[in-house]
Amino acid sequence: MTNFKSYEQISNKTKAGRAGKLIKCPNCDRIERRVYNMNWSEATCRFCHTTTRRHEWLIEEYIYR
Asked: Are 25 and 48 in contact (CB under 8 A)?
């Protein structure tokens, strides 16, 4: 059994969980930080300095096979 990490867009039903999840900037595709809740509406990337709405960011998802 292996697990693969992929990234998908944040939706209204997305939860970060107790351990948190990494988010990736949709503009520069660099991993920004670990989030523990979805109580934010937009964030600024520290690498490309663009401000993007929450639903455009990518969040890590594990795929178990």
From this structure: yes
Angle value at C-alpha 24, between 22 and 28, nearest 5 degrees: 155
Q: Which region holds residue 41: left if phi is over 0, alpha if psi is between -120 and 50, else beta?
A: alpha
Where do we find the tokens 């503009």?
A: 27
Q: What backbone phi and psi angles, to 5 degrees, belong to 15?
A: -125, 145
Instruction: For residue range 15-59, list pLDDT tens digits in order.
Output: 888 989 999 999 999 998 999 999 999 999 999 999 999 999 999
- Do the beta carbons of residue 41 and residue 12 sit within 8 Å? no
C-alpha–C-alpha distance, residues 31 and 28, integer Å: 9
Query: Can you say whether the dihedral through the CA atoms of 26, 46, 31, 36 is positive or negative?
Result: negative
